[in-house]
């Protein structure tokens, strides 16, 4: 009889959804060798490799594809069983929220101090866009906040608020406002994780296309590090307006090309269809929308 450790299945599923052994190790609070060991044992028990070799790029074998489909169904079945046993969520249940780091730190976290949410238990985690959608789809989060939709996902998206993407430069010593798309190629940009979407939307909305090339000498993981680097004169960047704090505005300035439109991007609430919605969701979204209003003036 085949006996499989459920922790090994969880490890395998996490590797696939985190898109790497290293990221899975961080999410599971394990070392990477420990993650690799669990997978070797799982492959040995199943008698088939789960990932193509070499593993520089994560590609599932046919056996891996079948096992991942099984793990996804198992997670859904366990979630359904948990809801049937414990009943639907109540106000006393923690509202599990997954959102992008920049929006979460600048808008969501401050909104938690609002009166409607002050006594509401909330578990807030910051993740990338795909990780947010994965968490909601698997039932690990009651609610996600996402800056883009995915039509391929079996999820519900509803508009919560808008955010503005802005070009920022060092105050007093930055370049003049660009008037043509080609002007952007002469600037040095400070980049960050997932900036491709922000940069691309700003280029398209403001100038109707992307520049032939952009130069970048500095790159960071968090947007607040980017804003600080711009203040130090390392270049310019394009960031959400809410990520530029009042103090930072003393060191950086928002550069709006004359005669060009602003770049507004929707933020969506993401929920799982057919799932009993947490009763605090509407109060939470109202507080977030109100907090975001101050950055749209």
Descriptive overview:
α1 packs across α2 and α2 (21-28) packs across α3 (32-46). The N and C termini lie far apart (65 Å). This protein has helices at 6-18, 21-28, 32-46, 62-86, 101-111, 129-137, 195-207, 223-231, 281-292, and strands at 95-99, 122-126, 143-146, 156-170, 188-192, 215-220, 237-240, 252-255, 263-271. The protein has 297 residues and is of the alpha/beta class. The mean pLDDT is 87. Helices cover 39% and strands 19% of the residues. The strands form 2 sheets. Strands 1, 2, 3, 4, 7, 8 and 9 form a 7-stranded mixed beta sheet that branches. A two-stranded parallel sheet has the order 5-6.
Name the shape in a single word: globular
List low-confidence stretches. none
Instruction: Output the radius of gyration.
Output: 22 Å
- SSE string, helices as H and strands as E: HHHHEHEHEEEHEHEEEH
Mean pLDDT score: 87
Secondary structure class reads alpha/beta
Alpha plus pi helix count: 9
Instruction: Please summarize the sheet with the most strands.
Output: 7 strands, mixed
Number of strands: 9
Q: In angstroms, what separates the terminal alpha carbons?
A: 65 Å
Keywords:
alpha/beta; globular; two-stranded parallel ribbon; 9 helices; seven-stranded mixed beta sheet; 297 residues; 19% strand
Annotate the secondary structure layout.
Blueprint lengths: L5 H13 L2 H8 L3 H15 L15 H25 L8 E5 L1 H11 L10 E5 L2 H9 L5 E4 L9 E15 L17 E5 L2 H13 L7 E6 L2 H9 L5 E4 L11 E4 L7 E9 L9 H12 L5
Parallel strand pairs: 1-2, 1-3, 5-6
Antiparallel strand pairs: 3-9, 4-7, 4-8, 4-9
